[in-house]
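Internal ticket #5521
Category: modeling
Description: The requester needs a full-assembly model to guide mutagenesis choices. All entity lines are attached below as received. Residue total reported by intake: 663.
Assigned to: D.W.
Attached entities:
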Amino acid sequence: MKPSILDRLSKLQSPINVLAAVLLGLVIGTALMAIQGHNIIEAYTALFNGAFNGRFNFGGTLERFVPLLLSGLAFAVASQASVFNVGVEGQLYFGAIVAAYFGYVIVGLPSVLHVALVLLLAGLAGAIWAFIPGFLRATWRVNEVCTTIMLNYVAIFFTSYIVNHVFKNPNIGVPQTPTIQDSARLARIMMPSRANTGIFIALGMVVFFIWLMDYTTIGYKIKAVGFNAHFATYVGFRSRWIMIGTMALSGLIGGITGAMQVIGIHGYFLDNFSVGYGFDGIMVALLARNNLKAIPFVAFFLAVLKSGAIGMERFTGIPRELIGIMEAVIILFAAAEALIVIRKRVSLGKGGAEVV
Amino acid sequence: MFSLSEIFTLTLIRATVRMSTPILLAALGLIVTELANITNIGVEGIMLVSAFIAVAASYWSGSWVVGILAAVVAGVLIAALMALIHLKFKADVFVAGIAINLFSLAFTRFLLKNWFGVAGSFYSPRISPIPRINLSFLQIHPVIDTLFNNYNLMDYLAIVLVFVFNFLIYKTVWGLRLRFTGVHPAAVETGGISVTTKKLQALLISGVLGGLAGAHLSLGYTTQFIENMTNGRGFIGVAAMYFGGVAPITTWLASLFFGFTEGVGARLQTMGFPSQFILMMPYVATVFAITFSMIRQQKKLTQKQPF
């Protein structure tokens, strides 16, 4: 297929669209602040300070950066094969409970090995959980958006059962697992905040997946399936298994996302602990247009907004929900011009009827 | 242990009907959009915003009628937003739906804080609930009375709407055109009818039904607003719609099935059975339901095609 002028234009157009969406979100959010009679300069100063000023605040931003980065990566990786993994939330619950279990029961391993083992097992748990919707999608075209959303609820209830009835810390009234061994913990890098060495692991994973997608045959095959599964099958790729495998890879990242919260932040699994990390990841990936290289920047931007919102609320009384609105408007407009994603969808969705 | 007779009583049938209503209302809207080839997962967000607006309007006006009307207007507005993104700006239908849902969650959180100064949930005795309807002619026999009488107005309305939409979809020109918008859009355009207009109509109707579903959640089923109170009911509506084969009457039966699992779950929970497995039942059932309906659909497709 020759790249037409339209193709080139749409490539240039997409970052411009995202910038426009961000600007619109900022304008609407700022207008809301102004309408409610807040001092805008004060508000943004407080937002900036809340995100960057001092080890605690900046550490808080980094702390939020890690789950945004990883769940965004998870969603974007699945998108390369044109699969929408809305199930990152469920996958991270499974990863987290597995991390909490093996972080606790394994004793006497050197720290590096223990952390690696816990992350690997958590990733595996997430991959297995993501395999189900991946398999259903690739085999019978069962819509993965619907199944992953359902499986999220199943994962939340299942882990809730485990932490309430099977593996509960008996000394505490709250449903949470016993605290993991010190050897499974990630070291803090910016006390008194909870930012930890997990950030380096996360960034390493982003680099690895950029390499995998852009510089290996596996990545080429995944993207070929995402672009046109029928064509990929025609030239001899095993599209079905590539799609399932990509979903499992995405679930692996999802599982590790959950594990990082356990071994890096809390030290245990708490019932219902995720505040929508998985869904935040969708936001990150949408804003990054599923471009893996853009994901760290978008994740950092959103982490600044989230972290800054708390400082802003504390010092100016502007509710942090207002920043939530700002994010929502940005995502709405960013989705509104997802032109590149549409093409992938159309070529897959119609059973080859539309493929010329 | 508990005995089965404690679970399967006449009131379980009542619970089934009550719990199926929000799912059914959402699913009816989803049928209309699905026929026009739009899988509107944004219905979850439409319901959430409507549920909030219903409570707010009922609280300020003291009238549940105003609450329902405001909820319907809110539902239509969110559906119009969805239409803008999907039809005008050509966003992928699932991306648009996810964006609408994220927006609705943030929007209701913001309004809850901004209008009522609370986070999490809002309840007040000033909220006027949608009344239950007592049909005196059903009081002839206690069993008939228990089974059919004293439901919420919305429970009855939803059932009436099943037949209204069954008629609209299969017996009117409007319905024929709607169905062909999904099956063969080019033919519809050739017939001089705008596919975009048809899709817009479908989305706005799903906004009305999503609005009713939301109003029922916060003014009928309960009398309060809780953050994220839809809790996947819109998505279960999607499942009921697929399970019911995208047709009103069978979708009604599917909604009753999902209501039934919820009803049994609630009962087992009160008996001290670990609630989590019961609570996940509707979601597991949904995955199976969508899977089976897809397998069936694919079998049909392969039978039709000679090669």
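Resolution: model delivered.
Comment from assignee: Residues 224 and 232 of chain A are 6 Å apart (CA to CA).
Ticket closed.
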